[in-house]
Amino acid sequence: MLSAWLIFLAMIFDALDGHVARLSKATSDFGAQLDSLCDLVTFGVAPAFLMVKMCPSFAFAHKDTVWVIAAAFAACAAMRLARFNVETDDNDDHMNFTGLPSPAAAAAVASFAILFYTLRQDGNTLWFVNIELVDRWIQNILPFFAMLAALLMVSRIPYPHVVNQLFSGQRSFATW
């Protein structure tokens, strides 16, 4: 559960680090590459391991499959970040992304972890008559959901850069 919240905390820092670097005029190619390496670990590898740890019954029944999905998630995050580094230049306004951003994909997996933990709490068993069945369904759905998020990262679907659009003042939520 803590690891899921740490992924969300990392998202906040990731959203702000580029702004701080640009405001302080401390941007460099080395810093951009180091930021991508940190993003790969935080938003690629960590959610992949979290997914494996959250699905013990799926992992028991499909030992190799869960690890292949986790490796594919991390590899798609690496490809997504590499494409971002190659396709982004200094003149880019950073208002849109091509492919689902890796922090958003990591947040999707982390959200499942928070839901997973919340449903397992003793106080919430009154909400569901058969909590074990819901738990098993979540464990069987999450690997395929993670694979979908991984494929969306390497897709060419455009996504708005919410933080930059909010801070730049060019668009509001109503114009999306």
Describe the structure.
It is a single chain. This protein is mainly α and 176 residues long. 73% of the residues lie in helices and 3% in strands. The chain is built from 7 helices and 2 strands; from the N terminus they run H-H-H-H-E-H-H-E-H. The chain has helices spanning 2-23, 29-54, 56-61, 63-87, 102-120, 131-153, 162-168; strands at residues 96-98, 158-160. A two-stranded antiparallel ribbon has the order 1-2. Helix 2 packs antiparallel against helix 4 (63-87) and helix 2 runs antiparallel to helix 6. The longest helix is centred in the first third of the chain and has 26 residues, at 29-54. Residues 171-176 have low confidence and may be disordered.
- Give the % helix: over 70%
Gyration radius over CA: 18 Å
Largest sheet: 2 strands, antiparallel
Q: Describe the strand arrangement of the main beta sheet, using strand numbers.
A: 1-2
Task: Classify the beta-strand content into a percent band.
Answer: under 5%
- Average pLDDT reading: 83
Distance between the termini: 32 Å
Low-confidence stretches: 171-176
Order of helices and strands: HHHHEHHEH
